[in-house]
Design goal:
5% of the residues lie in helices and 38% in strands. It is mainly β and 132 residues long. It has one domain: Beta Complex (Metal Binding Protein, Guanine Nucleotide Exchange Factor, Chain A), CATH 2.170.150. The strands form 2 sheets. It has a 7-stranded mixed beta sheet with strand order 6-7-8-9-4-3-10. It has a 3-stranded antiparallel beta sheet with strand order 1-2-5, with no helix packed on it. The radius of gyration is 15 Å and the shape is globular. The structure holds zinc ion (ZN) (2 copies). The site of one zinc ion has 9 residues, from loops.
């Protein structure tokens, strides 16, 4: 069992353990939905997923016919996506509160990838925000 929630705390979910490696998704719709270069994502069984809080609050956007992206309409956090005809859901790994042992293992939708990954190895890093 793993648990996740949105930024404002209005929506919580519980899920059975992940059923796939964690992938970094570079698709264009993830870039837009998450306002990010890519999005950590993984599959979990649909019958193991439930909204633990905020079931009447959480909203969906159908980004592709048959694909719903569920998010909190108060704070905007992306929580889960689903193809309505599939028996697995797509967990937005960044919304998990459970600390996972797994690291991302694959890249998906590299045809849409921006240049945001390439510099990672050599980048200067800071514990918090930009230096003053
Ligand atoms: Zn929220
Ligand atoms: Zn994607």
């Amino acid at each position: 069992m793993i648990k996740g929630s949105c930024l404002c705390g209005a929506v919580h979910y519980e899920s059975a353990d992940l059923a796939s490696p964690i992938g970094l998704c570079h698709c264009r719709t993830c870039q837009k939905a998450h306002a990010s270069g890519y999005n950590p994502t993984a599959l979990a069984p649909r019958d193991g997923f439930r909204w633990a809080k905020g079931e009447n609050t959480v909203a969906a956007f159908e980004s592709t016919p048959g694909k719903n992206r569920w998010f909190c309409p108060k704070c905007g956090t992306q929580l889960m996506a689903e193809w309505t005809d599939k028996d697995q859901v797509i967990i937005r790994v960044g919304s998990l509160d459970t600390i996972l042992d797994q690291q991302p293992a694959v890249h998906i939708y590299m045809d849409d990838a921006t240049g945001m990954l390439e510099a990672h190895e050599d980048m200067v890093s800071f514990a918090e925000s930009f230096p003053k």
